[in-house]
User: Fold these one by one.
Assistant:
Number 1:
Amino acid sequence: MIKNNKEYQEAVNTLKKWAYAYYIEDNPLVTDEVYDKLYREVEEYGKAHPNEIDPTSPTQRVGAPLKEGFKKVKHPSRMWSMEDVFSEDELKEWLNRIEKLVPVKRFYLEPKFDGASLNLLYDNGKLTQAITRGDGVEGEDVTNNAKTILSIPLEIEYKKFIEIRGEVLMPFKDFEKLNQERVKEGQEPFANPRNAAAGSLRQLDPAITAKRHLLFMPWGVGVNSLNFEYLSDLMSFVYNLGFRKPPIRRVCTTIEQMQQMYEELVQMRPNLEVMLDGMVIKVDSLKKQEQLGYTQKAPRWQVAYKFPAIEKQTRLKDVIWQVGRTGVLTPVAILEPVNIEGVVVERATLNNYDYIQKLDIKIGDMVTLIRSGDVIPKIIKVLKEYRKGNEKPIPKPTHCPVCKSELLDEGILIKCQNLNCPARVVNSISYYASSGCMDIEGLGEKIVELFYQKGLLKGIEDIYYLKEKKEQILALEGFKEKKVNNLINAIEASKKRECWRFLKGLGIEHIGEVAAKKICQIYKEKFLDLSYEDLIKIDGFGDEMAKSYLEFMRVNKEKVIKLLSFLELTFPKDEQVKQNPFNGKTIVITGTLERPRHEIKDLLESLGAHVTNSVSKKTDYLIVGKDPGSKYQKAQKLGVTILDEENFEKLLKEIQ
């Protein structure tokens, strides 16, 4: 047993050395039994002497408290997407394109691992934050979960601030084991190791993440103060800080050398413990990377040379219909098991019923299955020459397989409209409570899911009975008096909302904010009893919108009336909008602005503007913030009037 702090520090250092050899170098120095024995001794000493605990000890990787959710945080520097090429000819085109901009002689090549991107922030040698990729500008803080991944060092020798980017991966053996456990528990299996890694990284309980045996493989850096000429040398420095190295990486000067490494990786791929979906080629000179710069979405100086999709043949045993969280039904093919890239595939997507008809697929058919690494397996062809005559047609569903309600059938889209369908109820409730709808703060998706599991919420109307269940909520872990009171107050406040928020919150297919506002503006309290003719008269309403609205109200009318009994909705007044530059104009918003986008949208609509998401010849104004995307370029080509935020605010002041 460890007797004092000196022995404790020696034991921690020994554990670190053993863990590095096992998780980074794949070269265990001791047996699991020996490692576990010392681990327990270090853990026991820490419990007995909490003030002496070394925060970098392997025993400190697990144990942070459960979170309600993940905080959104900005990356110190943007995490970019990557351009893809799929053949040697496309690779040549990319090389020729950059050669015209900047002459390049050296390229750095490495495997493209297929996982969940993660940004690690180190300061003064300590891991201070771990952020998921998110949209590249902003991600989620998953620091406590990242600390459970044993191939992520808690401490590095480099003391200045640095961002280290990489991929979180799940080995095939752990992926199969996890899916077997999920199936036993009645849960849906993950589609592939990438989805499993991403899901594991976002667990609210770090102890669950720790059990998933994730790996971290670095592929780049963000903000740093290092002074290297070449990326290959920079990455060598990163690996020497205590991170895993890829099985192969190389500096190349010719396309022949690139193609050779690509073919080596294709051969190596089936024998690796984690999923690869290609090879990444980067300009090795960091100075030339800066000169080449970026497009709107990706660096010009790197490209992903993707592996060809793998095809296998198997037999279609059955088709089941899954109800998604929005109510949309998706056909899932049940297959005779087939091994693709080390993963046993028994299910594949069929997209929709229209796709089934186009393929002319029947139960019992031999089919060609494709899987290209980062996508769910998909049936792409029916081998009709193998038909025996006893194959069965796949019937189109008319009733929900979960709640048995009649389905909304729009050809390609088949949807269950029942708000209380168990397959979509959590999504229905959390969408209704979201900020863009009834704005019930504190009733996010994770809380809704917990309340549903505990029987506190079975449908949207149950939100308004939560006040009576206060004691049951207080009995749940993490729910203190103040938090519960805030939630109850938010629910009470939601009882007085604009009509359009309620209508949008019902989640009717095709009825978004603009459509809901038009219905409430024109028909006010009569919105519940509209006819097809009433709806089709509304500007912008078509056949699908009208039918969807009517079908929803037919299925859910009693539930909607019940909900209305709790509410005091307000309706827009019949006021003439004063003449202003935006009245009657079609406007698109892009980029990051000082005001929240929803606030600008509401303001413009109150001035009589029509706010849309896409730029076209009919667009009158494009309001532009920082980092505008492709909408800005399209508006320039079409000659649309472009307003930056400063000029937009000036116009608003003139109106007031």
Note: The chain has six domains: 5-61, 74-306, 310-386, 425-493, 499-564, 586-655.
Number 2:
Amino acid sequence: MYPGIDPITFFFSGREPMDWVKPKHRAGRAKASQNDDADNQTAMQWLEKLCVENVSLLQSSLPVEPRKGKAKATDHPSQEYLQAMLWGITDWEVAKPANREFLQDLVDAFGPEPFGYRRTKNAIAIPAEIRSQQVAHATKIGKWITQQLPKSSYDPYVALTCAGWLYALPEVGRDIPPTLWLEVLQSTLTQVDRAWTQDPQDGLFPWVIWACEVPLALAKQMSHLGGKDRIVTETLNRMAMLLEQTAEEPHALLSFGAQDLRAFVASMLRSRWAADSVGARKWYPPQRRALSKLQSIALHLTDGEGLANLSHAEASHHDAGFWHALMDMCKHHKKIQLASAIALPDDVGKPTGWKPNKLRRDRTNDARLPKPSHYFEKNNIISMRRNWRKKDGHVVIDFSQDALWLDISDESGKRLICGDWDIAVERNGVPINIDVAWSEVCWFSDDDVDYLELECDLEGQCTIYRQLMLMREESMIYMADAIFPAPSQPEGAWKLTSSWTLPPNTHFEPESKSNEGRIYRTDEQSDSKPVALFLPLCLPEWKRGCTAGSVSQSGDQLVLESLSNHPRQFSAALIALGKAGQSSQFTWRPLTIAQDLKITSRESARAVRVQIDSEQWVFYRSLTPCIRRTVMGLHLNMEFYAGRFSSKDGTYEALVEVSPD
């Protein structure tokens, strides 16, 4: 696809620095004797030849904004680039989190409203007072950049601030001290050379900023560089190959809760803007398809408020502009654009020409949309949805670490559960240390349910099985933990504690006489209101005389404790959302299980019937090797069964059946 470029050596092996051809100056400025050496120059050598002799020449070549006349469709003013620097940023674990303040200061100084001054179409020129503040700010941040590079160049906040400083140059580039301009440029090009000669060992982001975005940002600011200059063409080749490879193997962007995914895509968008501004070639269909695939992945990991999943909701923010730019760049792939307009807040779909509310009411759109759920196997991340039209029942789980992360959204698209889904086990009062990663045992998805079962094997002690099931039609989430002790372990008393993390604006209120409770949300504009019903299926319905455990809130944790003297322990809960979650008519009952015409003990199997309004369901779990048993007229020979029960005719509709095979 890219003649003369070996994709292996181009990206993922050591290589010589990319040649930087000396750009063409104005007519007559370049000398013929210099052209012979141009093909062997690195970025720093080019800088030395161009700048050391006359720094002011480079400074005077900066474009002056705003330009008079009608702007091109590909032109984006510097304030749009600065605002876009905040797209996809998160709370990265870095040595100096305060570095984020410099990025925010840069956006505040050069964004749409510098120092509170609102830019308008009529007032093109910024007042002298604001301009002087911008110059002072650019000087301050420029000095900070030279101090941070190269020791912290791969701090994402430092890399973003450096790229943003380059985008802000048309505003103040001619007014800051020339020596500072040169010093920042030298430090920046040093990092570009490093990125060109090194693999992205610390992750694709912020390596992509130095390898792709910064060279194009420089090309955009230097009037003598054009779309066919080698720095531009080779950077575009690098971006094209990088896009195709990451779309095919996106696991590098999905590590650590996919915290780099949005930031990476945002960098690609800004880089494309810069390339368009210098008249560079467009992306070919493979790159457009790759970007659309990354959009699809990002959408799967975004809640109904537009916030990134797998991170605390307060650590993310909704960037409508990010989605507008992404949808515009991927407009040829209608299916994912339709899904974005439906699943995201209205301020994304409406400005791009869609009618989100009308689309959500049209069920025929389901056949035109991508599959609502997806399993990212290499990263152990699963996104479950009822469908794209419904915001409630969106579940995202990350089981790549010892502690599982679980996100559940309610019918408004807001996070109901957000954070660690933890488990603690005690045997005869002695805690068992759980420091083993989870592995997938079963994954199943169809029109009725998404079902996931995980296993954690604590060798010599016990094996823990964890179930998570989204029931699409009902908008209910079933969750369960089962403990199977090792054969060598003596019998004893179990205490199993499952806990879910509640966001800051939610809390759990248990009922006074029964064991269920409701999750409430407190909004700034309204009083506390219930958003979900929580049923502890492993406990009896009534608290009176209950010794099997309890459900409560401790700090920001919703805690379910289950106690047992049986050899095996089992704990289960059901979260009902939407209409079912608001119902006041519900009940659940443990069911009698028969085997060989005899009632089995609770250590062999568990079953429960749940009723909400007129709808009923049955859940069954075997705790021993499978054998034929009878539950409420059902003849089962499987590990797990979930089904709808019709009280009218006594028939069952199986939702999921899990056999040992």
Note: DSSP finds 20 helices and 26 strands in the chain.
Number 3:
Amino acid sequence: MNNNPDKLNELSKIVIDTVKEAGNVEEMYFRAGSSVKRESDSQGSRLVLGEGGTVSFDTYFNCFSYAKYLRYTNVKSVVFELKLKGDFTVKIIRKTLLEQPRIHQRAPIHSIQKDEEIAVCRVSLKETGNWQYRVDMSDEVIDMTASGELKEKTFYNAEERDVNPGKPKSAMYYIKVIAMKDDCVLYGGRYLTDCEPSRKVCAALNICTFKREEYVTANVNKINENLLKAEDSSIKDNLMVFVVDNGQTLEGQLPESDKILRFPNRNYGGAGGFTRGIIEAYDRRDYITHVIMCDDDLYMDPHILEKMINFLKFLKPEYEELHIHGGMFSLSEPTFQTEASAMWHHGGFPHKPLEMREQFNLLLNDMEEPFDYTGWWLTCMPVSLVEKNGLPLPLFIKCDDMEYGIRNEENVLVMNGIGVWHEAFDKKYSAHLEYFFTRNDMVIDSFHDMLDGNRRAMKLFTGRVLHHLFMHRYESAYFKLRGMNDYLKGVDFFKTQKEDELLMDLLSHNMKQYTEEQLNEMGYKINLKKMRKNSKHKTHRSERFINKLTLYGNIIPTCLYMKKPSIVDMQNCDPCHFAFRKEVIMWNPGDGKGAVVKASVKTFWKYFFWLIATDIKLIFNGNRISRQFYKRGYELTTVEFWKEHLGLNGGQQ
């Protein structure tokens, strides 16, 4: 069916250009058969197909998640548009998943799937032109028999007779093209609708950064060229870019535009930076409706913002507070989604770690499961929630996004095609982060009245501190102890803290890490084969008994320890690797750095008695402090507090 393009509204683009920084992974955009090659020039990319060549868009970035549109938007029909040159057969295929598997558990998945061609068209365009086809989406509920088989129900419209998909748990459309002759060319396409937008949307992309100039300038320049200045951009009037410059190093490095604003800010961490961006959006709430939180150390395809903002334009009234969250892909494994949402309790495990080259996983990813929060590498939220639920807590770094997600995200959308590439979180280890994990975890549990008794908190805290002490990671133990003691200072501590000064003080106590060359100069050799062997070592029952009886050697003098240094994987080790060892090299293959920890019985007992004193304080004061955060924590979330905290009321920034 041909439609007048002037009466159609764009939902998203079918993109052929890939992100080179993420490895130019074509399988995230299209699946190409034989006789297909991609060409690129200043005008963009195109696919050239020989006779019999096939291209399919059942991929993460280019499939159309129609079950999401049926549930959340007023979109009832979609127009498929391709820009083509040559003689093609074009197929529109519907893929549905009709049962709810559990995604985050590694259990067998039993699901009913249905895969069907709903349209097969012959297209012949001698000159470059647009081919379009319109499909109506039904919202009738499908019947299922007791055995789980489909009761097929046919309906008829002007174009086709087909099986009604109803409201499947997960569903997508995708396009497949087959070249009927040589030298056929595919330039890309779009998903359009003849429905009218239900609301006006203007989103501020809120990038919080600290001295990550290369990442930030690359992303902002791409957004500027592809979205803000591009003639074919469907959101150039619906997007602004806010760069909150905590390091104050980006002056003069961003494109000059009234849609790209830079805000020098105090280095009060991610919480301070992202909150500054939210405040700037809130102060412009007469025209800015949403704010999109975005990390500074990622790579993105700018067209994901088109998909996100255009989706918001068509929201049903009951979903006006909807959040849209992006999946996170690893730069080292660019087709693997490491996380799309997560749980706070139950170990904080992530949902949806999936390999996205697999078609079935695309359907799994669009399934909706309960979760507690989403991270701020890419999360869109309505500005109106500031008046309803306040601003983030001043947690500096770590857990700030988790807490705000728990507080706000009642309705969150995770959808194929909205994702970014990010460095793996476990690639580096910094001991000072233990301070923030300890302190902020306690604050969140208290603020949300989720602290399951101080005795349980004390048991977990004590175990983790001892774990570090047994591994001679005294700096890590120090940070955990200090974090708990600062939590016990209550709400007023957070009202007066200066996070930049606190960070500098913490870093002065941090564990020193070295490159392989530096360790060699110090007389330590990195033997990866030996490291892997040590990591696989399993202790015998007698050895475990002796380790525990002697507190992993800490009740005997270190002069009796083995003097030859051992080597372990920093991310995969436990106390048995350190027992009776005078020196241990902890090597991190992720970032190519290591640290040398040395046993000190004196230091062990110093921190052991500090741990006992902290546990006593937690027993006698923990309930009072927990109730204080629950009752007064909102004082740390007001616009007035944050403006004063960031020096926006005439104070020095």
Note: The mean pLDDT is 88.
Number 4:
Amino acid sequence: MFVNDHAGLDALCDACGIATGYHDISGTLHQPGIEVKRLLLEALDYPVNSDEDIQRHLETLRSREWRRIVAPVIVFRRNDSSLWLRLSLTPAQCAEPISWELHEEGGGCRHGSWELHPDHASGEYWLDEGPVKRFDVELPDVSAIGYHQLEIKTVDGAEATSCLIVAPGACYEPPAFEQQQKAWGVSLQLYSLRSGRNWGIGDFGDLCSAIDILAPLGVDVIGVNPLHTLFAHQPEKASPYSPSSRDHLNPVYLDVEKIEDYADCGQAQALVKSEGFQATLRTLREDESVNYSGVWAAKLQVLEMLYQSFRHEHLDFNSERAAAFRQFQHDGAEDLFRFALFEALQQYFHAADSRCTRWQQWPRDYQDPDSRLTAEWAERNVEAIEFHQYLQWITDRQLAAVDACCRRNGMSIGIYRDLAVGNEKSAAEYWAEPELYAPGTGIGAPPDDFSSDGQNWELPPLKPPSVNANFYHQFATTLRANMRHAGALRIDHIMGLMRLYWIPRDCSTGLGSYVAYPLQDLLGIVALESQRNRCLVVGEDLGTVPDEVRYALEPNKVLSYRILCFEKNWHEGSFKAPAEYPRCALCVTGSHDLPTLGAYWQELDIDLRARLNLYPSPEDETRQRMLRAQDRHEILAALKREQLVPVDTSDDADRPSALGSDLLISIQRYLARSNAAVMMVQLEDLFGQQQQINLPGTIDEYPNWRSKLPVALEDWPAYSELESIAQAINSERRV
């Protein structure tokens, strides 16, 4: 590579949305080097090996907007005073009226024309073919929110289309919020639920049982971990934040014995009732950690029987149940088919060679979903593909039943789902549409207070709309899939709507840079899907958060995600008072990446990190213990100010002891008293669990995403502290 034109390189980065400098959480300026810039440009399809490459790409980018009559996608807000479009036309084209037709999503069609005068152009650009003029034109008001299609024709026969997305002014809020009422709920890891009837992992049947217990206590919302599809051929890859598909559900959460086809399948019933199978289930239930491989092996064996029974009992006779499945296939269309095809292919190649764990290891022709050999394989293996469509169908039906259970119990919000920031690099979504992703890069976070070394989640980023024509469609599809059967959705790393931190392959986390995304456009689509699905939106805004994102959340009615230990008056170290929490927020004592409240109080997380040698030096460990002691002192001081503990309560800051139930309830009352519209309580805290759900920075060193709750569902009603905490929270939230 030979590049001397550093100014040109920076200009090209700016044009592609690559930050040539950014400030970290402490305000320190970071500027990526030439090689990092070059690698990120290459990932965006603008390879640079010389100064000539830079100038050629710059000219391509500068002229692109002038070479198309209208932008392919335009997002408006319904509360915008006017809908203005920008057209680029040659002098000959604008000499005659420009005709347009607007095909509204609801089926309506309107048409008209614009008469333009060259002297009224707002700009001009010279292409090799000659001059192009820019005009700003007004489109008659489109009041209906939705996805509309605009067609434009010029006198010389040129045609252009644009998707006009008309979004509401803000996201959906439950009716109770408009009356300033507050809600509270319980967040849980679905896999962690214990019961005497599940198959070693919490399932949708357990979730309904949990709702039946918690809703009468005043719970309005139940939060769950991401339900995204993971990797069936590698069940131990258990992180729900590194999925194979964010648009499809994980069938490991199926309550197998509640599937309608189970009642029709004598073969499956006989197997499940057999002594050997029951012994396996007892072992899986008794395991202290989820044995994903054992659980999935047991479920898969029965699910395959149920699918065959479904074929013989329903598909062969075109029953009403068969019609419902065919409708599900039709609605899922190409996206569902490609996902099921991927699952079937991965199962096929892994069965032939257990070392084949990624689609990048398949024979080359099968790495292309549109290849002739892939199509021929699909024709020969219809049932194998349909099996995975069937799994999605029955999983969707059981999730719908969970939603119905929430409504039956009168919950004001219901299920609160979680959307991961991206798909894993061997994901089904990546295989289905590889052109949407930036190869050779991973997204993460630069060093901050949460992670001093930064984070690389190794999730390939979606290319921004500037180089990805299908970005908006994919984004809307993913939102729609995750708002389905839900009353609220948490968007992990909401800052990703404005920028994502890209790390080139083989680079340390500190050597990446941010790549920009169109924040206002994406917030508009979030608002549109939120209103259509009547789904509250929470934005996880922890870490390095740009001011633009902070300021945009409240006007769009996206709830900020506030964790107690981070809500401080940093200049003095005190914790914010409940009255200082914003109304447009969800507050909680912790998250899946943080220690439970009991472990936090006793410094067990610090002990764990020290044991695993995760601190760079002994001095770092000592510093963390000093900060934790200060936090305990400040939390007690905050509780005293709110008169939630006696003023003479011992600080005990230097000698951490177990968190007693009275203090636990006082901390929950403190958050319940806050202005935040929603408060969540972690189920692990309710039951005094000390084991952390996930320890960032570890893979094999710690059993992430596997720990089970210490109390079985059947014992919840007798657990007196559950009701005590609920009563305390209700006394604060219902005022």
Note: The CA atoms of residues 171 and 527 lie 4 Å apart.
